[in-house]
Design a protein that fits this description.
This protein is α/β, with parallel strands linked by helices. The chain contains eight helices and twelve strands. Strand 6 (137-140) and strand 7 form a beta hairpin. Helix 6 (163-174) crosses helix 8 (199-212).
Length: 236
C-alpha cells in the first residue's frame, strides 16, 4: 500500500483530503505542523514503514514547509508535492528550489491533486528502475556535469543544482544543438501524464540560465526557440 505523509495545519483541508486518500486505498500519516512532520518522517524510516510521497503545505507553524522539505531532501529522494495558498512565482520557485517535485495551488480539485500524485509516483518508480548505460561525464562549452556525483561546474566553478534543474540540464547536455520541444521536455522530466502549469518549465530554465549564462537576461547558450521550445548551443 502506498504510504503518504500529509502535512497540513488547516483541519478543513487535512481531514477531508486524508479521508478521500484513504478511501482511494492510500495509507495516510497526518501531521499538523512542521516539527510533527519531521518526527513522523523519521519514525517512518523503519523497515516496512517508509513514506512513498509527501504532501506538504508551504505555510506551517513551528517549522515552515520549505524547511521541512529541505531537511527531508538531506536524507531522502521521496517525492514531495508542495501545497500552497499563494500563487506567486516567488513562492513556486522557493518550493522547487528546496527540492519539491511539484506544487498545487489552493484551492485545488481532488482530481487535479490525485492526478499529480499518480504522475509523481510513476516518475519516482521509473527513476528507481535499472536504466541503460549512459555517459556519466557530460561537457558542452563552459558546462561540465558529473552525473554520478551530481556535480555541475561552469568554467571550473561548482554550482548548486536542485534535482529538477539537474535533470533538465542533463537532458539539454545530452542533446546539444537540438531543439527540444516544450512537450518533449515536460514528458521526459515531469512525465506524459503531467497536468501542471507549463510555466514550471520556464521557471526552471530561468534558474538554470542564472547559473550557466554570462548574461542570464540575454541567454546565448540555453536559447528559446519561439513557439517551439529550447536549445542548448554547443558553440557558446
Amino acid at each position: 500500500m502506498t504510504r503518504i505523509l500529509l502535512v497540513e495545519d488547516e483541519e478543513n483541508y487535512r481531514a477531508p483530503l486524508a479521508f478521500r486518500l484513504r478511501r482511494d486505498g492510500y495509507e495516510v500519516v497526518e501531521a499538523g505542523d512542521g516539527r510533527t512532520a519531521l518526527r513522523a518522517f523519521q519514525a517512518a524510516a523503519a523497515p516496512g514503514g517508509a513514506i512513498d510521497l509527501v504532501l506538504l503545505d508551504l505555510m506551517l507553524p513551528a517549522v515552515p514547509g520549505t524547511e521541512v522539505c529541505r531537511r527531508i531532501r538531506t536524507v531522502s529522494r521521496v517525492p514531495v508535492i508542495m501545497l500552497t495558498a499563494r500563487d506567486s512565482e516567488t513562492d513556486k520557485i522557493l518550493g522547487l528550489e528546496t527540492g519539491a517535485d511539484d506544487y498545487v495551488t489552493k484551492p485545488y480539485s481532488y482530481r487535479e491533486l490525485i492526478a499529480r500524485v499518480h504522475a509523481v509516483l510513476r516518475r519516482s518508480r521509473e527513476a528507481a528502475a535499472p536504466a541503460e548505460p549512459q555517459e556519466k561525464i557530460l561537457t558542452v562549452g563552459r558546462v561540465r556535469m558529473d552525473v554520478e556525483r551530481h556535480e555541475v561546474t561552469v568554467d571550473g566553478q561548482g554550482v548548486t543544482m536542485p534535482l529538477r534543474e539537474f535533470e533538465l540540464l542533463e537532458l539539454f547536455l545530452r542533446h546539444p544543438d537540438h531543439v527540444l520541444t516544450r512537450g518533449r521536455i515536460i514528458e521526459q522530466i515531469w512525465g506524459a501524464d503531467y497536468v501542471g502549469d507549463t510555466k514550471t518549465l520556464d521557471v526552471h530554465v530561468k534558474r538554470i540560465r542564472a547559473k550557466i549564462e554570462v548574461e542570464p537576461s540575454r541567454p546565448r547558450m540555453l536559447t528559446t526557440v519561439r513557439g517551439v521550445g529550447y536549445k542548448l548551443e554547443a558553440g557558446q
